[in-house]
Amino acid sequence: MDRVSLDEQWRGHGLGAILATEAIHRLMAGCRAVACSPGVTDLSSDRLRNRAEWDRVNAKIARGGERIGFRSYTGTVYLLSPASLELEDQREAMRGRLSALGASWRLTQARGTSS
Fold it and tell me: I want to staple 78 with a disulfide (CB 3.0 to 4.6 A). Which of 13, 43, 70, 106 is the partner?
């Protein structure tokens, strides 16, 4: 996986970490380590022109990776062992969050169509 991009309306809900967890799980057969360099790749957002906001968003992305088991290796590189029990535990928790987010979205859509 080279890059994860979400439409702006879907950002900030933890979907990047959820999608990364699922991709890692599907691709990890025979893999001994997963490396990533988390950070902003979409430079089109005007709100990220402020350095403090840029740093805040990058830190939030890194925390999402740490939540699924990535650990700081050097500089901006993080490593994860695919055999980590933390990865599997977090995968189950994230699937629950994804299910709740989906239910919330469906409820919002139903309210919007019944108006």
Answer: 70
- In terms of residue numbers, what domain contains 26? 8-113
Q: How would you list the strands of the sheet with 34-36, edge to edge? A: 34-36, 77-80, 71-74
**What are the b/e assignments for 46-60, b being 16+ CB within 10 Å?**
eebeeeeebeebeee
In whole angstroms, what is the distance from residue 115 CA to residue 85 CA?
Answer: 46
| End-to-end Cα spacing for the chain | 41
Rounded distance between C-alpha atoms, residue 10 and residue 5, angstroms: 10
pTM of the predicted protein model: 0.71
Count up the domains in the chain and report the number.
Answer: 1
Give the Cα separation of 36 and 9 in Å (integer): 24
Residue 73 located in a structural domain: yes
Q: Which residue has the tokens 């959820």?
A: 18
Write out pLDDT tens, residues 61-103. 888 888 888 999 998 899 998 888 888 888 888 888 889 988 9
**27: part of which helix (H) or strand (E)?**
helix 15-27
